[in-house]
């Protein structure tokens, strides 16, 4: 039945595609094997609004500037190096406090690298601790409130993504779940509110594993990518075992968003389609081949695509930051989804901004911020927001 359902969805998409000029739909089909698309240069500020936040650096607040969560009042920052530090800034970048509950105790976490979620309505921080396969909840001062376990069964491992779904629930993704990876989970006790079933025949993971002579295993992947992407009031669900990317609407209905071709089951060497960034006009993607040479330590060849929703055309692309007077490329692989109001954040290293300022390459607000920095300052965070 699942195979029949997938075929019907693809056929429906093809019918919609043929009538695209008549309907105004944004459904599209992406050929992951094609590489000879025309090249297009884009200026980020032409299609997105931008805000810069300089993270205050003082005493114990020097950090790597990895944004975990952004709210109306607070920004949560980590180093992504396993030290367990969570830096809390206000929305303007003023350092407020640093908390660290790393440890082996029942009210502590071992790891924070699988995501931190901020719930400002309840002044709570949710730490996704994959080592313990549980989520620990703290207040904004680091005081422990409660914890609950990740879902078990059907090949589940741990939640690889945790985001704020609504007042009562988190939306979580378990990349290794053999059946249902996307779940709505109660913020109070971790109970499953809803299982979002995306149809597919076989679970597929974008990674390669090799067994060593001593019996240990080496796992490699092409880096971080998101399976759950907030877009306006909806959620885009990228389950790589399926040929279809779905929209989870606010009423919890699943709607097809795009289809990749050829079907992944037809490929000897799988090519995965990864969504990086979605705006009203553009959809930025990567097609990544799931191969790796363990002898040469190289692999996962990829090409970068953008779909222009107005021109209804796929391009290879380069994106530039319009707040530079020279062509300063932005790498969309580094853009990280945030929430429904802020599409993404992008890191700008202080020493690079200082160098560009000294060369007279900056303008506007970025120039003003760079004039206050030195090479030891914290990174400046670019917030990329949908145009009003």
Would you give an account of this structure?
This protein has 388 residues and is mainly beta. It has two domains: 1-60 and 204-388, no CATH class; 63-197, TolB, C-terminal domain (Neuraminidase, 6 Propeller), CATH 2.120.10.30. It contains five helices and 31 strands. It has helices at residues 2-18, 20-23, 44-47, 350-358, 364-370, and strands spanning 28-31, 39-43, 48-54, 66-70, 74-78, 86-90, 95-99, 116-119, 124-129, 134-139, 144-149, 161-164, 169-173, 182-186, 192-196, 208-211, 217-220, 228-231, 234-237, 244-248, 254-261, 271-278, 282-289, 292-293, 298-299, 302-308, 313-320, 329-330, 336-337, 342-348, 380-386. The strands form eight sheets. Strands 2, 22, 23, 26, 27 and 28 form a six-stranded mixed β-sheet that branches. The chain has a five-stranded mixed β-sheet with strand order 1-21-20-19-18, with helices on one face. A four-stranded antiparallel β-sheet has the order 3-31-30-29. The longest helix has 17 residues, at 2-18. Mean pLDDT is 90; it is low at 1-26.
């Amino acid at each position: 039945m699942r195979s029949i359902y997938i075929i019907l969805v693809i056929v429906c998409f093809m019918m919609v595609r043929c009538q695209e000029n008549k309907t105004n739909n944004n459904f599209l089909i992406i050929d992951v094997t094609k590489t000879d698309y025309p090249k297009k240069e884009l200026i980020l500020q032409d299609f997105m609004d931008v805000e810069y936040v300089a993270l205050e650096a003082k005493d114990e607040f020097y950090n790597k500037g990895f944004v975990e969560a952004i709210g109306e009042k607070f920004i949560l920052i980590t180093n992504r190096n396993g030290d367990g530090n969570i830096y809390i800034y206000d929305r303007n970048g003023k350092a407020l406090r640093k908390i660290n509950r790393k440890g082996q105790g029942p009210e502590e976490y071992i790891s924070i690298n699988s995501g931190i979620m901020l719930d400002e309505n309840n002044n709570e921080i949710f730490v996704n601790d994959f080592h313990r396969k549980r989520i620990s909840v703290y207040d904004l001062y680091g005081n422990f409130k409660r914890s609950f376990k990740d879902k078990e069964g059907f090949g589940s491992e741990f939640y690889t993504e945790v985001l704020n779904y609504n007042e009562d629930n988190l939306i979580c993704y378990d990349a290794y779940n053999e059946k249902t990876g996307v779940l709505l989970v109660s913020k109070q006790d971790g109970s499953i509110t809803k299982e979002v079933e995306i149809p597919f025949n076989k679970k597929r993971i974008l990674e390669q594993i090799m067994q060593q002579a001593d019996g240990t295993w080496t796992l490699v992947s092409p880096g971080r990518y998101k399976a759950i992407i907030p877009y306006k009031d909806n959620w885009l669900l990228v389950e790589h075992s399926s040929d279809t990317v779905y929209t989870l609407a606010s009423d919890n209905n699943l709607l097809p968003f795009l289809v990749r071709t050829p079907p992944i089951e037809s490929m000897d060497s799988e090519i995965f389609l990864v969504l990086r960034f979605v705006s009203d006009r553009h959809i930025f993607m990567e097609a990544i081949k799931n191969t790796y040479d363990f002898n040469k330590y190289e692999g996962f060849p990829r090409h970068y695509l953008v779909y222009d929703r107005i021109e209804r055309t796929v391009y290879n692309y380069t994106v530039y930051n319009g707040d530079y007077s020279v062509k300063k490329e932005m790498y969309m692989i580094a853009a990280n989804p945030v929430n429904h109001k802020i599409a993404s954040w992008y890191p700008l290293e202080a020493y690079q901004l200082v160098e560009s300022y000294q060369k007279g390459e900056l303008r506007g607000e970025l120039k003003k911020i760079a004039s206050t920095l030195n090479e030891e300052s914290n990174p400046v965070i670019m917030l990329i927001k949908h145009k009003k």
